[in-house]
Amino acid sequence: MQPRELISTAQIPGGEELRLFRRGGDFMIMLGGNELMSSRQSGSEEALALMTIERLRDSKTAHLLIGGYGMGFTLRAALGALGPDARVDVAELVPEIIDWARGPMQHLTAGCLDDPRVRIIIGDVADAIGAARYDAILLDVDNGPDGLVRAENDRLYSSRGLAAAKAALKPGGVLAIWSAWPDAAFTRRLKHAGFNVEESQVRARTNGKGARHVIWFATT
After folding, report:
1. Eight-class DSSP state of 158
2. What is the mean pLDDT for each group of 10 consecutive residues in the chain (220 residues)?
3. Helix ranges restricted to H, the chain
4. At a CB cut-off of 8 Å and minimum separation 6, what does 96 contact?
5. Most exposed of 66, 72, 166, 192 (fewest Cβ within 10 Å)?
6. Which residues, in sequence order, are bridge partners of residue 199?
7. What does the pLDDT read at residue 154?
8. Residue 51 in contact with residue 33, Cβ under 8 Å?
9. Cross-strand bridge partners of residue 19
10. H/E stretch holding 1
11. Per-residue CA distances from 150 to 13, 18, 170 (Å)
12. Is the dihedral of CA 90, 91, 96, 97 positive or negative?
């Protein structure tokens, strides 16, 4: 097996250090000993986009907010399913993530950052949520609703954060949240916030294998 090569590092505002590794043609982003994302596993991130768009009233002109960029799997899947008049805002807290997408991982990016439908926002997705009205808000900013990466992420998943997301959605809008594991307490919190909640399990890999991840679809 080829050894991992450290390509770059980045500091998470209010959090720890991210490390970008490459092994052959594969990339991994690590936080401490945790692999946050890998180019080998894109299935559930793509499902986050595709299953959300299936639930929209009109995908041709929809306005989406994605937080955060990651390795771009969710954004690319969304662009492939949305119409030419749709818009996608991508909020990414760590600017180096976008630099990596345009640099060592540009073959994975496949030009999606230059799509005219895309607007990149460098900053906290919690701030972007209050700045516009959206047909869908897709959150994949942590390993789940417990703030592993950054303690401040907890505010997104709190009762107040869910109320803010609900207020930012247009009628019939969808709040979609990715998690590495189930969380019954969070499901109850979504329902208490006034959402209709559907919880789906999806595989980490596009071939239907790998770990089971969770996506909550909360509709207004």
Report:
1. S
2. 92 91 96 91 95 96 96 98 97 97 96 97 93 95 66 79 96 95 92 97 85 94
3. 43-54, 73-81, 95-102, 106-109, 125-129, 154-157, 159-168, 184-192
4. 8, 10, 18
5. 192
6. 216
7. 74
8. no
9. 9, 30
10. none
11. 8, 11, 28
12. negative
At residue 49, the 3 state secondary structure works out as helix
Residue with tokens 């500091």: 11
Rounded to two decimals, the pTM is: 0.94
Ramachandran quadrant class, 147 (left: phi over 0; alpha: psi -120 to 50; beta: rest): left
Domains, the chain, ordered by start? 40-219 (3.40.50.150)
| pLDDT the model gives residue 153 | 67
* Spatial CB neighbours of 9, under 8 Å, sequence gap ≥ 6: 17, 18, 19, 20
Q: Cα separation of 93 and 121, whole Å?
A: 8
The conformation of residue 72, written as its DSSP 8-state character, comes to: S
Tokens 């770990």, located at residue:
211
User: Do β-strands 34-38 and 196-203 pair in parallel, antiparallel, or remain unpaired?
Assistant: unpaired
Helix (H, G, I), strand (E, B) or coil at 91: strand
pLDDT for the residue numbered 44: 95
